[in-house]
Every structure is written in structure tokens, then in C-alpha cells.
Amino acid sequence: MFKDLFSLVGRIALVTGGSRGIGKMIAAGFLAQGASKVYITARKAGPCEATAKKLTAAYGGECIALPIDISTLAGIELLATEIRKREDRLDILVNNAGAAWGADFDEFPESGWDKVVNLNLKAPFFLTKALAAPLRAAASAERPAKVINIASIDGIFVNPQETYSYAASKAGLIHLTRRMALKLIKDHVVVTAIAPGPFASDMNRAARDHADEVSKRVPSGRIGDTEDMAGAAIFLASRAGDYVVGATLTVDGGVAFANAGIKGEGWAE
Fold first, then answer.
1. Which residues fall within 8 angstroms of residue 194, CB to CB, at 6 or more apart?
2. Is 155 within a domain?
3. For 114-131, what is each residue's pLDDT tens digit?
4. What is the CATH number of the domain that holds 36?
5. Which of 39, 164, 166, 243 is catalytic?
6. pTM score above 0.90
7. 39 a catalytic residue
8. Residue span of the structural domain in which 45 resides
């Protein structure tokens, strides 16, 4: 009954923002569980292609670089066209590409709003829409296709940092996940989200560069690692997560929900 519960053998995936950080962790996890092809995107061709070569060499499947900027509708359509040209189906889409911006409330610029909201909230919707046909082609009642949106705990609780557009975009993505899930489950496409906490990445430089200090503010006592993020994504992408629809899985060592009442703890400290 439980054979291959977490297997991704033969599946085709696309991970946006997959050249580094959380996207790279997820791409590696999918390949480790038997995915036949994992496409990754990034704005910069060099790092994208380097990561693809490294992951292909490390695992049995193939990692393919598609260096495309998806911050615009033109870029989104270009990526979708490339996928549709190469594949007649897409089993898994991970909307991971994102941006952040911090500035004082009185100085916060429109550019810092539009850049972040467009990439973090607008792009996941329109890319999923553009890839609806290959997702539906892969989907069946016995083996649904999967869309996994990468949100953040900043969309669940209030981070004291002044990252207004980032927090709003991630909260919006969590609710968008629910709305998309309601629509697409009828086509056997399961939509879920992951809300990561502190993981080492270029976006979370504090966790990357000061892991020991950040770990003191995490109930689990450490920042997240590759296995933590890959494990969550594998669960949602595999048969194990087929009945998890519209949910946001918090992967943060307890920051968002376990901090309350712990003396001396607090994300802001």
C-alpha cells in the first residue's frame, strides 16, 4: 500500500528561481526522488546553467536550465512557450522566484512595491495560467498534477522589518493558493504552498551569513537546511500530498506558531 509514497519517478517539473537557495534545494530533492526532468529558471544564464549541470551530475535525472526573466508577462509567456515546445505535459510547477525590498514607511518607493508584488504575486498566477494546458494534460484522478507556491512566514505573522510589499505579496500568495486550488482541483491539479522560515539564501542573508545568531531566535534551535525544504516539497509533489489541497505548509522550525510564550524569544530580537 505504501510503496513509492514519496516517489517522483518519471515526473517532469519546473522550478522557477531554481538556480540557488530554496529553488535549488527543491530541484535537488525532486531529482533525488526520481524526477526524470527538472527545468529551472533564473534571470542570469551563467548561474542557472551551472546549477543545472551540477544537479544533473549529482542525480539520475536531468536538470535543464531555462534562463528567462519572468518578472514580466512577456517573460512568463516566453517560459511557458519553451516548456510547451519541449513537453506535452508538466507534472509539477513550483512558483519559487521572488524578490524582497526593505525601506522606511515614509520613504518606501513605488518601484519597491511593483517589483516585489509583480514577481511574488502576479507571476505565479499568470505562469500557472500559461502552463494550465500541460498541467491538465499530466493530471488524472489517480495522479494529480501539482502546483506549489513558495510563500513565506512573513505572510503569516508580522515581521518587524519594513518589508511592506514583500509581506503583502506573500500573504496574498497564501490566499491566492486557496482560490486557485478551488478552481484547479476540478481538473485534478492540486495547488498548495510552502511558507519557509529562515533558510540560507541570497534573499535571507541573515540566515546565510549569521546562522548561529538567527538560530537563537528559532524554537528548533537552528535554521532550515536542504533536506527540510526538499522534504516538504517532495511531500506535496508526490502521492503523499495528493489529498492536501489549498493548504500552506509552514516550514520554519516553529518561528510563526511556536514562539508565543517562550521567554526571551522573538523574531525581532
1. 148, 149, 150, 151, 229, 232, 233, 236, 248, 249, 250, 251
2. yes
3. 999 999 999 999 999 999
4. 3.40.50.720
5. 166
6. yes
7. no
8. 12-251
